[in-house]
């Protein structure tokens, strides 16, 4: 579906529930996407709420910028910031919120998020429209990927539309979740280029500073990162590495720094708030990304917006993100990455670089949150034309995924919704007032 050509004449006001296990105060690409998309949709006249699980003492209702209402549900985290996939335990509270807020569209985010799938299925059984945004790439071989893909296939059987952040991500989702291609649109992430502005005065002219900002986990290529640092530091005394981020692989970088005696050229900043990232980026000349898999890398766009030369592995959707004159693409191995950094260093020495402020202007035109919100609106407008299916047809669709016991789960969820209607009647639920700021 080419959503670029859709006319922007339909100005219908939508009431949307963003659902995900991942939201602030947790930090990451999914959290930032939900927040920025919600803010722009509110600015365009729509009503948006967010449903997520509690974070520590943050339980209940909170209001963010522009009156964005966030429900932090009293649900315990099971693993890696995700709730336990019970499917039935949260039906009453989710139904209450969807009715109280007069929700029309449930928009789930992230294949890892159990809460996103649960709220979407509950919403579908209540006759609402559902959208799902997939932010990640998955494999097909290991047991974890097989189970995740089958779970995703079951949950997306009745989803009205899917959104992927890159064309590679779309192919991946269509294959592993068996979603029909015409029901999947590509809408990329964006970056606030007015926040990530260049400041060349912060750079040290006597050294070449390479900045890395990433979660330090296996799929971000931390092993490659450590090998590249161990290879380059002895050969280039004027190279400095600034590494922001934390994770289970932090010990590897600490080990390289201590055993090799690289304390003078490696700075480990640890976990960063998103508001601190720009101040780190502007100190660098080169940004390095060593990801092993990536649907869309927001970090390289933020770095390009700050005027850094970007060196990145050529995996997943990364080749789609930036034009050739703004990025050096490499294979995911040490030799290729080092060659890419050396080429970037040579261009810096020869002054063969784009003006940082021109880079910022280019990113501002390519990736804009208001444009992403407009394109998402088009998806909302289209799915509202879909007819709701009765329970029998929904069960027939779920049967197509090949997991017969899942029909029992859906049937039980439907019966519990009917029971909740008897106990907490819809007419007795107070409708929430819209907060206008």
From TrEMBL:
What the entry lists under Gene3D superfamilies is as follows: Glycogen Phosphorylase B (3.40.50.2000)
One molecular function GO term is:
phosphatidylinositol N-acetylglucosaminyltransferase activity
Keywords, comma-separated and alphabetical: Glycosyltransferase, GPI-anchor biosynthesis, Membrane, Transferase, Transmembrane, Transmembrane helix
Domain annotation PIGA GPI anchor biosynthesis: ranges? 53-142
From the record, give the transmembrane residue ranges. 397-417
Cite a single GO BP annotation.
GPI anchor biosynthetic process
Q: What Pfam family is a match, any one?
A: Glycos_transf_1
**What is the enzyme's class at the highest EC level?**
transferase
Superkingdom is: Eukaryota
* InterPro entries, A to Z: Glyco_trans_1, PIG-A/GPI3, PIGA_GPI_anchor_biosynthesis
- Which pathway does the record list? Glycolipid biosynthesis; glycosylphosphatidylinositol-anchor biosynthesis
Q: What is its EC number?
A: 2.4.1.198
Q: Does the keyword Heme apply?
A: no
Q: Which residues form the Glycosyl transferase family domain?
A: 203-350
| GO annotations of cellular component type | glycosylphosphatidylinositol-N-acetylglucosaminyltransferase (GPI-GnT) complex
Q: What is this protein called?
A: phosphatidylinositol N-acetylglucosaminyltransferase
């Amino acid at each position: 579906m080419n959503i670029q050509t859709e006319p922007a004449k339909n100005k219908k006001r939508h009431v949307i529930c963003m659902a995900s296990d991942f939201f602030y105060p947790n930090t990451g690409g999914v959290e930032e996407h939900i927040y920025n998309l919600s803010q722009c949709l509110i600015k365009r006249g729509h009503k948006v709420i967010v449903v997520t699980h509690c974070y520590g003492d943050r339980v209940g209702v909170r209001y963010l910028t522009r009156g964005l209402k966030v429900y932090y549900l009293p649900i315990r985290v099971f693993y890696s910031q995700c709730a336990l996939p019970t499917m039935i335990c949260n039906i009453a509270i989710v139904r209450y919120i969807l009715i109280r807020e007069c929700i029309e569209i449930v928009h789930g985010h992230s294949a890892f998020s159990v809460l996103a799938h649960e709220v979407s299925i509950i919403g579908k059984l209540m006759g609402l429209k559902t959208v799902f945004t997939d932010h990640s790439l998955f494999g097909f071989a290991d047991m974890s990927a097989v189970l995740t893909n089958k779970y995703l296939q079951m949950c997306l059987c009745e989803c009205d539309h899917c959104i992927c952040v890159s064309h590679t991500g779309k192919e991946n989702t269509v294959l592993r979740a068996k979603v029909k291609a015409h029901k999947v649109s590509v809408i990329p992430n964006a970056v606030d280029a007015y926040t990530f502005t260049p400041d060349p005065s912060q750079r040290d002219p006597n050294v070449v500073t390479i900045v890395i900002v990433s979660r330090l986990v296996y799929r971000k290529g931390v092993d490659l990162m450590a090998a590249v640092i161990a290879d380059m530091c002895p050969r280039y005394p004027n190279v400095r590495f600034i590494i922001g981020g934390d994770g289970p692989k932090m010990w590897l970088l600490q080990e390289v720094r201590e055993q090799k005696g690289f304390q003078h050229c490696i700075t480990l900043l640890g976990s960063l708030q998103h508001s601190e990232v720009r101040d780190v980026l502007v100190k660098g000349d080169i940004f390095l990304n060593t990801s092993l898999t990536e649907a869309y890398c927001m970090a390289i766009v933020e770095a390009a917006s700050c005027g850094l030369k970007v060196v990145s592995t050529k995996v997943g959707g990364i080749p789609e993100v930036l034009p050739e004159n703004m990025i050096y693409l490499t294979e995911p191995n040490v030799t290729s990455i080092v060659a890419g950094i050396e080429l970037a260093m040579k261009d810096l020495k020869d002054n063969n670089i784009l003006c940082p402020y021109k880079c910022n202007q280019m990113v501002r035109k390519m990736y804009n949150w208001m444009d992403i919100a407009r394109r998402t609106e088009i998806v909302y407008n289209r799915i509202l034309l879909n007819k709701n299916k009765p329970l029998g047809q929904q069960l027939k669709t779920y049967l197509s995924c090949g997991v017969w016991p899942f029909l029992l789960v859906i049937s039980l969820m439907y019966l519990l919704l009917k029971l909740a209607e008897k106990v907490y009647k819809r007419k007795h639920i107070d409708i929430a007032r819209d907060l206008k700021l």
